[in-house]
Design goal:
By secondary structure, the chain is α+β, with helices and mostly antiparallel strands. The protein is built from nine helices and 18 strands. Helix 4 packs across helix 8. The longest helix has 21 residues.
């Protein structure tokens, strides 16, 4: 039997797998403890392949910050599931997305991860050339083939939406509702869409970007972000600014709730010093509060009065995830050259502490001690809803 993972093979189909059609083979614990996913969900190549196909290739995936591609001809390629997706700014100013594949013989059109072209995208193999709108515009001897439909043999388009200043793509032939799946995540967390729109994320500028290479499964990162049972243990700087987190409370428990700053904290900074002026649209009710939103499958949004922090995950393998984190500020803060160090350092420390914890967990996912998974205490029970969502997407229910 081949040992190569196949996307159509689910954990319960693998020889010796402890995973059953629901969650785990072991009986569920009673009382305060709720079972987690089995360890194979975090290590098995077949599970990861199934997630690529059934999660990342069917849902809206946050690809990049739209302002990265400001000039016509600017492009960036992003891996979404098993596909390379090319995003490019057109001559008309519109942002478009295509599969990064030449229609002739299947060569990767843009080998570079990012760059700029003048008027067209050209395959280095046979020089098939495409306009920034994806249409086939030239190829050797193309004029001698008048029967070739240049639109039909143009690049394969990918669905694209822009929101909060980011470009979201979807590979599905019929994408799910963007309003329900993406915007709906903010509504579910904050109570109404206007609560996030007040931060005007699309009008903010990237003050700092840090890319983390995390040697852990993407789900461990999601689970970590969703709970604060660990906060008192590994986040001393964060709990100084948000003291309620020291009690294991997570800001995502209750609709509309934001974690209050400590009375002595002047801003959301590593030492509590004053930050920047409150963003213009942020209300008095939102001032001096932190809000966190999870947008499945790959985005975390963190909102504080003077800036926002947006994480985007790019799963690379069952045990590796690239996380791109943007710190967004008012344009005058970035253009004015203000020192962002103390503002950025707080969540950079939080990120590194979290990712270190995830990397500590990853090796244990293949241990016999975790063959049936672990358990969730009451402060973590809501993670079970994430597990239910995932197993449903994978067809394990």
């Amino acid at each position: 039997m081949s040992t190569q993972p196949r996307p159509d093979v689910l954990p319960q189909d693998l020889p010796g797998s402890p995973v059953c059609g629901d969650r785990v083979a072991a009986p569920a614990p009673a009382g305060s403890l709720v079972p987690t996913l089995a360890g194979t969900y975090y290590t098995d190549g077949a599970v990861f392949a199934a997630e690529q196909e059934r999660v990342f290739e069917t849902m809206w995936f946050c690809a990049l910050r739209s302002s990265e591609l400001a000039k016509p001809g600017a492009f960036r390629s992003v891996d979404v599931g098993r596909e390379s997706v090319l995003l490019v700014r057109g001559a008309d100013g519109a942002l478009r997305a295509f599969l990064n594949i030449c229609r002739h013989r299947g060569a990767r059109l843009c080998a570079e991860s990012a760059g700029e072209v003048t008027r067209a995208l050209q395959c280095v193999y046979h020089a098939w050339t495409y306009g920034l709108d994806g249409k086939l515009i030239a190829a050797p001897n193309l004029t001698k083939m008048p029967d070739v439909d240049r639109s039909q043999y143009g690049l394969v388009a990918v669905h694209l939406r822009e929101w909060l200043g980011y470009a979201w793509v979807c590979l599905a032939d019929e994408p799910p509702s963007f309003e329900e799946d993406v915007m709906g995540a903010a509504v579910e967390r904050l109570g109404h869409l206007d609560a996030i729109e007040r931060y005007r994320l699309a009008d903010l500028d990237v003050g700092r970007r840090i890319v983390y290479d995390v040697r852990a499964n993407w789900k461990l990162i999601v689970e970590n972000f969703m709970e604060c049972y660990h906060c008192a243990t590994i986040h001393p700087e964060l709990t100084e600014v948000l003291p309620e987190f020291a009690d294991g409370y997570a800001a995502q428990y209750y609709v509309g709730h934001g974690a209050a700053f400590a009375p002595e904290a002047q801003g959301f900074t590593v030492d509590g010093r004053v930050g920047f002026e409150r963003l213009p649209g942020v209300t008095e009710e939102q001032d001096r509060r932190y809000y966190a939103i999870t947008v499945r499958p790959n985005v975390f949004i963190n909102l504080v009065p003077d800036h926002a922090i947006v994480h985007r995950m790019y799963p690379v393998a069952a045990d590796r995830t690239i996380v791109e984190c943007d710190w967004l500020y008012a344009p005058d803060v970035v253009a004015g050259g203000h020192d962002l160090t103390h503002s950025v350092e707080l969540f950079d420390r939080v990120n590194r502490q979290d990712f270190d914890a995830c990397e500590r967990c990853q090796p244990a996912m293949s241990s016999r001690a975790y063959v049936n998974g672990g358990v969730l205490v009451p402060a973590e029970h809501h993670i079970g809803a994430f597990h239910d969502w995932l197993t449903t997407k994978l067809g394990h229910h």
